[in-house]
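Quick entry between incubations.
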Amino acid sequence: MNILITAGGTSEKIDNVRSITNHSTGRLGKLIGESFLSNGHHVTYVTTPQAVRPATEPHLTLIEIETTKELESALLDQFQKQTFDSIIHSMAVSDFTTETTLSEDTFIEKLAATLIKDQALSDLTTLTEALYRSIDEIGQTIQNEKKIPSGTDRLLLFLKKNPKIIAMLREQQPQAVLVGFKLLVGVSKEELIRVGKGILVKNDCDFVLANDLEEINDKQHKGILIDRDGHTQTAETKPEIAQLIVNSVEEKWRDR
Amino acid sequence: MNILITAGGTSEKIDNVRSITNHSTGRLGKLIGESFLSNGHHVTYVTTPQAVRPATEPHLTLIEIETTKELESALLDQFQKQTFDSIIHSMAVSDFTTETTLSEDTFIEKLAATLIKDQALSDLTTLTEALYRSIDEIGQTIQNEKKIPSGTDRLLLFLKKNPKIIAMLREQQPQAVLVGFKLLVGVSKEELIRVGKGILVKNDCDFVLANDLEEINDKQHKGILIDRDGHTQTAETKPEIAQLIVNSVEEKWRDR
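Done. Structure below.
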């Protein structure tokens, strides 16, 4: 089979020396990649600079990206060149990217100026509408302040929505066995399965691996693999999750 | 000599899976540490999880921190236990830490409610004061939204000032030969020296290593070492900078 795996975590630049990073060691993605490789499959592996990845070998193509935008471009580029039998989308992708960063002083100065100009102050509805317009304009037109004054006590960072990567995978590669991932924090098993099923249906996945950050540590990594029929299989460690995914994908592919 | 080195880059948590990270590979700090160790000095080396560091050896004490707050605690703890002959503060430290994260909707709802309540809308001064009060209250009292609604197009991240680490080093360790670092982006050599001297005077450093991100790549790392008399020495690579710092610190210590 020809497999695409995404793993690691994207980061979004704030400026030249700072960024917002989604933490992911890439260790689960590495295990999944190694399992597919050792079963003789070809793997295109898209990952991020800090993440671990499978060792170089002839059946492995490595692609490195940093931001969600770069991930989107790299995937669209691959979809032009290759048809994948399966896509395992385990990368932790930023839902939001940076729009601008302002000191509190600059933000309030701009906001007050537009509110006064708009005479937006007569009632709550008018004020609310004026605030949306004003914050929209500030976000879209004001660039990062080159030099934040040293007296600044507070910064406001504007973040705007990134493209939803998982939403475009089925459309781009209708033939692929598609595995999505969902990480939640501190929820019940029922809630985890409910949200995982929602992700599966919404993005037309074949499987979703749902997991909870509070059930992940050095020794264990609990994961629930949900299929289209709502059946679930559970695993207790990263190697078990990797094996579960590889087996399920291979089986699904054979049945097609 | 008994040496303290800070290296790497701090990061500030946004939530369980995201943080704001100051990029620093720690490669220069590692070289400085290795040079001091090979000259027979004791080194306490404070660094961050992603950064490279000198290999373990008997004269090296490694301390790992993530946030600026943790750095402050770790240093104050060390200053209780040890007297340092020199402090090399090369870590890239976040000036700001995360206060709260809100969807645009929640932010505007809270802001509009307080502005209307305050009847703050009569003139620009009253409005500006009300905006400061309101944003201050939102920043300090509203917690991260547990679940950002999926329709949210924009987030606002509030950041507040961190303690200035370099400002407390001289006060805590008056006897130490103190080396500060300043990284700028795309400035002239004159500006780099001017800002570097400002940092030196303000924080009572013995030396400041000033460098420009645009003059740093895989092959070169231009750096200017400024001393109290305003003399400058330049280096072209990380090993040269490390050697310059180690020589200058040793010489300064001998002359005391």
